[in-house]
Amino acid sequence: MIRNTSKKLENESKNSSFKEFISKGKIPENRSSLLQVEISSLEDLVNAASDMNERVIHDAGSGEYFIIHNEALYIFLG
Predict the structure, then answer these.
(1) Phi-psi region of 12 (alpha: psi -120 to 50; beta: other; left: phi over 0)
(2) What is the pLDDT of residue 1?
(3) What is the edge-to-edge ordering of all strands in the sheet holding 22-24?
(4) Does the reported pTM lie above 0.90?
(5) Average pLDDT in the 62-76 region?
(6) Triad 16, 17, 19: Cα angle to 5°
């Protein structure tokens, strides 16, 4: 339990540095119709969003962070 709490606090601390680039939202229900690209870190996803002139969306229910750009879903599973 302590290990999970510690990991959660570590993730929240890391994510707070990207707060200005992340909006709250919900992963679309039609996600299966989109090309899916898994990104290895939140920092990489934020950088990709910046390059594509998009915002990162965080779905608090699923814990997923994503961008939709040109019919592709770029996703970090956090």
Answers:
(1) alpha
(2) 44
(3) 22-24, 56-59, 64-69, 72-76, 35-38
(4) no
(5) 95
(6) 60
